[in-house]
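hey can u check if this looks right to u? its 176 residues, i copy pasted from the old doc so theres a chance i mangled smth
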Amino acid sequence: MQYWSVARTDTFDLAGLRLHAGEGRRLDLEVELDPLELASQRYAPRPPLVPVKLEASRTNGGGWALHLRFEASVAGPCMRCLADAAPTVAVDAREVDLPGGGDELDSPYVDHDRLDLRAWAHDALALALPDQIVCDEGCLGLCPVCAVPLREAGPDHRHEREPDPRWAKLAELHLE
């Protein structure tokens, strides 16, 4: 494989690589990542312009085998305690686009040898994120009664239990 170096790109003309079946190229690119909305919260990629490594190979059927790798952080609220969180994730995504190969071999990011790199990087980042974005793995969240962050409240944080409503009528009895 040969190395080509290209600057920022949102879409990439794969046909411009002029590859024959079995040939491939490795490219160092930069792509701008759009913010993500997860659980009604906005998470902004940091930095928004991320260096990516793209490997493109021409397949025998006139299609493409693509490999995308990059690292990015997303900044937003912790899903447990709402403090600032900014986890970094490594993205390693693959796509295959083979005309006439059926839905499984038809990449939504390739259209007539034009790769929508920005959309692919955005979706690959969303899929690479953990199930919960947290400020740290040991985050205890918020107290369900008073909403104080449990890491600040300490181990002795307690609330008086509400009486069981099934026993409420007994409180009306006055036994003397």
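The chain has one domain: 2-139.
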